Amino acid sequence: MEKLFKNLNISHVASAIPSDIFDLLELSKFYGESEVNKIIKSTGISKIRKAKKGLTSSDLCSSAFENIIENSDLELDEIDAVIFVSQTRDYILPQTSNLIQSKFNLNKRVACFDLPMGCAGYVNGLLQAAMLISAGCRKVVLLAGDTSSHLINENDRSVSMVFGDAGSATIIEQGSNDMYINVCSDGSGSDKLIVEAGGYRMPSNIQTSKVLEVEPGIFRSNNDLYMDGMAIMNFAISEVPKIISESLNFLNWSNDDVGCFALHQANSFMINYLRKKMKIPIEKVPISLEGFGNTGPASIPLMLTDLHSNLFKNNQLNKVVMCGFGVGLSWGTACCDLSNTKFYKPIET
Question: Number of C-alpha atoms within 13 angstroms, CB side, residue 191?
Answer without folding.
Answer: 1
